[in-house]
Amino acid sequence: MDLMVSTILTVEDEPDVRAGIRLLLEDEGYAVTEAASYAEAVTAMGEGPVDLVLIDIKLPDRNGFDLCRAFRLDGHLIPIIMLTAQVDSHDVVAGLEAGADDYVTKPFVPKELSARIRAALRRMDRIAEVPSHSTQLVFDNLVVNPDEGRVTRDGTVIDLTRIEFLLLAEMAQHAGLLLSRDQLLERVWGYDRAGDGRLVDAHVSRLRAKIEESPSEPRFLHTVRGLGYRFVRPSPGAESPSPSR
Asked: How far apart (Å, rounded) are the C-alpha atoms in residues 159 and 44?
């Protein structure tokens, strides 16, 4: 009986690193497609189905941020993991803001990269696994429909990545409750990454830009300074609050 094999596109210009990633992924049972540049990655994405992309930030023609943004603008919802050289650099936040789901620092530990990939691929199926008893969540002009994986504001569909939807659905389903960054990392990303709140912060910021009428004065996604986030159900006719952010 044939099993479905996930295909991973690796975008890395250093041949030795690319070869090492291929060996690791093939050993884990994945099919691997390689690209050494922005142009090759765009071509590879158009030639066949891809389930996940690993993107190195430094490419010879254009950078990995541009590639990530291009994939998102083209409507690709598959997981994207950025490969960055420094954990404390601006590159981390920039990659997440460009639409990446996660990041791994180089040199990476093979088991860590494998765990991130497995968690990301598991998230691919979570929208389809929403319990049948779930119903749409209505918050004034914002409607979250877990059954369809769709969010609308004033009747207009909002274009979210898969992980953005999962994050919003998790918070909306627990409206009014404080959720710490560590809780969100575990529930949405599928693993515990205590102390690295940038992953959550960047995606909340992207969500605000998409669902809030005034992201600087959010009605729904409130920050509880130093603790985490709370999805607030607005009162009918209430003015947009100005919580600490």
From this structure: 24
